[in-house]
Write a structure and sequence with these properties.
By secondary structure, the chain is mainly α. The protein has one domain. It has 19 helices and no strands. The relative contact order is 0.16.
């Protein structure tokens, strides 16, 4: 229902803004003299621009969809090899001690711990199809030990917030769409995205821990968080100490090297487990084709509505207002055109995806705005959608501090993405 309001809102707002522009043109002398607002010939022709945008966006949707089919088919085939080879189980063993400490109210070896670990690991590997069923199973397991069946438990909230912080190691769809949009190196956002989403996850963890009075200074927790944070701090320190051209070169090399190492590791795990690697790839590739086909209608719908919204001048009005606001404080405002993606992501994944594509089409896939929009898209999850689906699955009506902590994680991710994008791409 929320997506319905967003979609209709784009179209109605575009129509209203366009109508105001046409009226303004016919009364341009009055507006110029009384308010100092200038209307010109472009305002009269705004509806022509809107109609042309619908055809342009339809063409863009088809081009992206065709490329997306191939890339999604390839990567989900590779992911299926990793899944059957035991990549998720391996990650589960690595993070299990940490998760036992941040879910203190759960009994030792409770089934929910395994389900949550599997869900997080599937999300990290970009296995969305596997992550959602595992997440719903985790919620049902957590509901078994929940003393108030209509109220979210502490463990549920921690699980949801960490889930919505969107920690992803391999952002398949983002790289695929960047490639389809003409990016010279679709993986150049890989490292910035990983860094930004880590900050979002840590912020969400800290927010929930403060509310639930969880001790984050435990030796195990400090070992995990301190170790990862130290590595990331060293990476950022090193990148800030070298020249910008070298940062981009290192980012491209690191992203491609790490991604290919995942492929080799998945194949090695498959060989070790003696699975049929080729058949596993084919099974995953079939799922990739189905996923890509399912995305197409949503992509066309959102690009159509967003195209109308931008062609009407409504997007420029919002961006211009934000640009002036931040400009008053002397802040560099090159990040402003990418902000609509950040605003949309907690509400709608497909809506944010459409805005990301539109930003790359308008400014270029390899522009600062195009890269930042891609980073925003992968930094956080669709918070409100996830809350609705996961809590709805177990009939939770009172969500307590889940929304506020989830939005804190989103905000931290957005701020981190901006600073990191300036470091890598500006």
């Amino acid at each position: 229902m929320l997506l319905n309001y967003i979609w209709v809102g784009f179209l109605l707002a575009g129509f209203i803004v366009a109508l105001v522009r046409v009226i303004g043109y016919y009364y341009r002398d009055f507006f110029a003299d009384a308010l100092g607002i200038i209307f010109d010939r472009a305002d009269l022709e705004v509806f022509s621009a809107i109609v042309n945008s619908t055809f342009d966006m339809a063409e863009t949707s088809v081009k992206i969809a065709i490329y997306l089919i191939g890339v999604m088919t390839l990567w989900l085939g590779i992911m299926k090899i990793g899944e059957r080879g035991g990549a998720i189980n391996a990650l589960s063993r690595v993070v299990s001690p940490f998760f036992r400490k941040i879910f203190p109210e759960l009994p030792a070896n409770h089934p929910a711990i395994g389900s949550m670990l599997m869900n997080f690991c599937a999300n990290m590997l970009g296995l969305d199809n596997a992550a959602t069923p595992l997440g719903l199973k985790a919620m049902k397991d957590l509901q078994q030990v929940n003393t108030k069946k209509d109220t979210a438990s502490n463990s549920m909230i921690m699980f949801i917030v960490l889930n919505t912080s969107g920690l992803t190691i391999i952002p398949i769809s983002i790289m695929a769409i960047r490639a389809a949009s003409g990016a010279k190196d679709p993986t150049d956002v890989f490292v910035p995205l990983l860094l930004a989403t880590y900050f979002a996850t840590v912020a969400g963890l800290i927010a929930v821990a403060i509310v639930q009075k969880i001790n984050l200074f435990n030796r195990v927790v400090l070992a995990y968080l301190g170790g990862i944070t130290a590595i990331i701090a060293l990476v950022i320190w090193y990148l800030t100490s070298i020249e910008q051209p070298r940062v981009e070169v290192i980012s491209r090399f690191a992203g491609n090297f790490i991604l290919f190492m995942f492929i080799i590791t998945f194949i090695w795990l498959g060989i070790r487990k003696k699975i049929n690697i080729y058949e596993s790839f084919i099974d995953g590739a079939k799922e990739g084709f189905e996923v890509a086909i399912k995305i197409i209608p949503y992509l066309v719908a959102m690009l159509f509505a967003i195209g109308v919204f931008r062609a009407s001048g409504a997007m420029d009005f919002i961006i211009g207002g934000l640009d002036k606001f931040f400009g008053l404080f002397g802040i560099n405002t090159d990040f402003i055109p990418a902000l609509p993606v950040a605003f949309m992501k907690p509400l709608s994944g497909s809506g944010a995806r459409g805005l990301m594509v539109e930003a790359m089409q308008t400014y270029g896939a390899d522009s600062f705005v195009g890269r930042l929009a891609s980073t925003f898209q992968g930094t956080t999850e669709t918070t409100f959608y996830t809350l609705a689906v996961y809590f709805g699955a177990v009939n939770i009506k009172k969500v307590r501090h889940a929304v506020s902590c989830g939005l804190i994680a989103d905000l931290a991710g957005v701020i981190a993405a901006i600073f990191i994008a300036y470091l890598f791409f500006h």
